[in-house]
Amino acid sequence: MSSSTPTIGVLALQGDVREHLAALAGAGAQAQPVRRAEELAEIDGLVIPGGESTTMSKLAVIFGLLEPLRERIRGGMPAYGSCAGMIMLADKILDGRADQETIGGIDMIVRRNAFGRQNESFEAAVEVTGVDGGPVEGVFIRAPWVESTGSEVETLARLDDGTVVAVRQGGLLATSFHPELTGDHRVHRLFTDMVRAAKELGRA
Ligand code: GLN
User: Fold this and answer.
1) Residue 39 pLDDT more than 70?
2) In the chain, what percentage of residues exceed pLDDT 70?
3) Which CATH number fits domain 7-200: 3.90.76.10, 3.50.30.70, 3.40.50.1860, 3.40.50.880?
4) Which of 20, 97, 141 to mutate to test the pocket of ligand 1 (most atoms within 8 A of CB)?
5) Of the residues 11, 112, 182, which should be mutated to test ligand 1's pocket, given the most ligand atoms within 8 Å of the CB?
6) Neighbours of 39 (CB within 10 A)
7) Are the C-beta atoms of 175 and 86 separated by less than 8 Å?
């Protein structure tokens, strides 16, 4: 694999943008916030942060970003969503707000706030396919889970009870948990490698 440095944006409408920028830099990417549609032209891949998907969805519409984001993702731009970002990348959601839009791209149904009140926030060791060196520390905060997936979607991680908490479909990656909050950059490195590979392919 070449050592070229991909430029990866972080959707900076709402959420833990700074933490993702730091994690991407730690993973060897050139990281920059994205707030305007024009800025999408500057990036090779995009992270959609954790936060509040209903707010993010509203702001994406207000800022005129929803359609441009859908277009770039349809055109093959790699994207990674953590928690609220996973919701934003889901083709279908359950327990969303009535007017809640997603960007979509991953053929899956995701349930918002799925773990319920008893288990709103918790940590769990999660083995993620494609991430070497042992389980990652999964930080779950009012997290969604993946309720079902289409045939093109690969399950990368499950909790002990079988709940699907990380998936990949081509260049699109999503986790229910927040690796950006742990200082462990392995998931961001996996995504950076995916972006680098897509970029190299585009050049070939
Ligand atoms: N519950 C939030 C939502 O629905 C996601 C929480 C998170 O990103 N930590 O968007």
Assistant:
1) yes
2) 98
3) 3.40.50.880
4) 141
5) 112
6) 17
7) yes
